[in-house]
Amino acid sequence: MIGRAPVSRAMQQDMEGRFISHHMLTQAFQDILRRQGEEVYSGRYIELRDNVTFDTPKGPKTREVIIRDTSGVIVIPIDDNGRMLFVLQYREPVGSSSLELPGGGILAGETPQDAAIRESAEEGGFAAIGEPRAEFLSYTAPYSSTDTNYYFTLRVSATAKQEQRLDESEIIDGRVITLSVDEAVRAIRDGEITHGPTIQGVLWYAVNHASEERDSLDRSAKDAHRGDGLVPYG
């Protein structure tokens, strides 16, 4: 099991419920913001409004705010060997491909968990084993935006793969890049992973789950070697 300690289904449902509640509240808050201030720009994904007034601990404050059409999910796929799976996505604004965890926007009518299942299959073609596990949420730029990412871990098959189903705006290499947790952390250090949400996901997983993942793999290897005439692992 992924995690520092066994997590009951009730605890997991509580976290999933918090994600859903937070997403609904964010959408409601965005609707309130859209009725305030002045529209500066409105595009496919974002809206910029100016002269929006907020109540703060120091009294009312007026400023600009960026409103995203939807928040998003980031999936941390872990295969049978404890390796993390990444995709290579071309990003037009920086003019290069970016090594990233799969993720994307939450569609109308979806819960964050629904989006995590869909995005992992669409972008990576990953064959899930079980359900995504809700982990944590992160505001991408709380100083100017309501945008939120919801992070999930997902156990996937190391061998089975589905066909990618990309939307028209995505340019993703068909290859799946697998890295151990240590390799992924080094890739961040060496500047090979520069995508902010991916850096958050990798480091969070390394801090919270990696040692338990290695212990689990060690136990599996030892069990596989016992009783078959081979020297036990370790």
- Continuous helix count: 5
The CATH homologous superfamily of the domain at 70-222 is termed Nucleoside Triphosphate Pyrophosphohydrolase
Form type? globular
Please state the average pLDDT score.
Answer: 83
What integer value in Å does the Rg equal?
20 Å
Total beta strand runs: 11
* SS strand fraction: 25-35%
Q: Look at the structure and give the CATH class of the domain at 70-222.
A: Alpha Beta
Low-confidence parts? 1-5, 225-234
CATH architectural designation of the domain at 70-222: Alpha-Beta Complex
- Terminus-to-terminus distance: 21 Å
Reading the helices and strands in chain order gives: HEEEEEEEHEEEEHHH
How does the helix and strand content classify structurally?
alpha+beta
CATH topology of the domain at 70-222: Nucleoside Triphosphate Pyrophosphohydrolase
Largest sheet: 5 strands, mixed
**Oligomer class:** single chain
Percentage of residues assigned to helices? 25-40%
